[in-house]
């Protein structure tokens, strides 16, 4: 019974999405209204041919059907569709709209790691942050609001920074991730927002602090390297944040 209710919810989502299409078909809407379909029918007969990306993700999640490449492709199309819809809007509107979309979807999927490819999503959103001149904490705020833990997010940014992807150089912001990481460290010591106590459960704090202290040397020397190439970098904020973080040990 519970499984049928879950499928019915997904079908309702599909019906709503189909009803919003400019080329909506009366027979299609009537069928979705009158028959309770299974997830295979919903996927193959409606969401796939109509390009209903959010509904496709909902079906995979409902069926607990995991395909890494497919899930990543769906998320890419969800983001592409949102960006295309925004057209020539100003950057503030774009940042707000994409943030809202990702927070809404994140609240549904962030705790299901298979259906919320965090590394991919963070990198993709940070690319848009660079293009739209978003603040350093834009993506981090999205993910924290969506329910991603600070420690999981910090690990993702560590991996991204370590990968030395050429995308940041290509976008003209080679030190972008350093600024984001500096912002993350500052969040831990910002007493006005609760700092570490507000972001990390007590049981996880010591491990996270150790990771921060270990990683910060890499960030610091990385920022010095960028400075040697005459690029303004946030390295002056990193040691200060580290000293403050150490006080929690």
Automatic annotation (TrEMBL):
<protein>
    <recommendedName>
        <fullName>Nucleoporin Nup133/Nup155-like C-terminal domain-containing protein</fullName>
    </recommendedName>
</protein>
<dbReference type="InterPro" id="IPR007187">
    <property type="entry name" value="Nucleoporin_Nup133/Nup155_C"/>
</dbReference>
<keyword id="KW-0539">Nucleus</keyword>
<feature type="domain" description="Nucleoporin Nup133/Nup155-like C-terminal">
    <location>
        <begin position="1"/>
        <end position="215"/>
    </location>
</feature>
<dbReference type="GO" id="GO:0044611">
    <property type="term" value="C:nuclear pore inner ring"/>
</dbReference>
<dbReference type="GO" id="GO:0000972">
    <property type="term" value="P:transcription-dependent tethering of RNA polymerase II gene DNA at nuclear periphery"/>
</dbReference>
<dbReference type="GO" id="GO:0017056">
    <property type="term" value="F:structural constituent of nuclear pore"/>
</dbReference>
<dbReference type="InterPro" id="IPR004870">
    <property type="entry name" value="Nucleoporin_Nup155"/>
</dbReference>
<dbReference type="InterPro" id="IPR042538">
    <property type="entry name" value="Nucleoporin_Nup155_C_3"/>
</dbReference>
<dbReference type="GO" id="GO:0036228">
    <property type="term" value="P:protein localization to nuclear inner membrane"/>
</dbReference>
<keyword id="KW-0813">Transport</keyword>
<dbReference type="GO" id="GO:0006405">
    <property type="term" value="P:RNA export from nucleus"/>
</dbReference>
<dbReference type="GO" id="GO:0006606">
    <property type="term" value="P:protein import into nucleus"/>
</dbReference>
<dbReference type="Pfam" id="PF03177">
    <property type="entry name" value="Nucleoporin_C"/>
</dbReference>
């Amino acid at each position: 019974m519970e499984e049928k209710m879950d499928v019915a919810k997904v079908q309702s989502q599909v019906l709503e999405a189909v009803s919003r299409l400019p080329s909506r078909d009366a027979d299609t809407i009537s069928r979705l209204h009158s028959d309770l379909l299974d997830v295979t029918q919903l996927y193959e007969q409606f969401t796939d041919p109509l390009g209903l990306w959010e509904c496709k993700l909902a079906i995979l999640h409902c069926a607990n059907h995991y395909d890494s490449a497919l899930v990543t492709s769906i998320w890419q199309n969800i983001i592409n569709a949102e960006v295309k819809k925004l057209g020539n809007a100003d950057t503030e509107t774009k940042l707000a709209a994409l943030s809202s979309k990702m927070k809404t979807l994140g609240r549904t999927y962030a705790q299901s790691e298979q259906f919320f490819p965090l590394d991919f999503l963070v990198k993709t959103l940070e690319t848009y942050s660079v293009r739209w001149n978003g603040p350093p904490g834009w993506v981090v705020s999205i993910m924290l609001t969506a329910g991603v833990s600070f420690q999981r997010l910090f690990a993702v940014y560590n991996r991204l920074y370590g990968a030395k992807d050429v995308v940041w150089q290509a976008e003209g912001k080679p030190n972008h991730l350093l600024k984001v990481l500096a912002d993350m460290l500052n969040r831990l010591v910002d007493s006005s927002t609760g700092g570490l106590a507000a972001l990390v459960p007590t049981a996880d704090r010591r491990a996270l602090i150790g990771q921060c202290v270990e990683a910060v040397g890499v960030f610091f020397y990385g920022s010095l390297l960028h400075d040697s190439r005459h690029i303004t970098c946030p390295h002056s904020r990193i040691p200060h944040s580290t000293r403050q973080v150490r006080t929690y040990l």
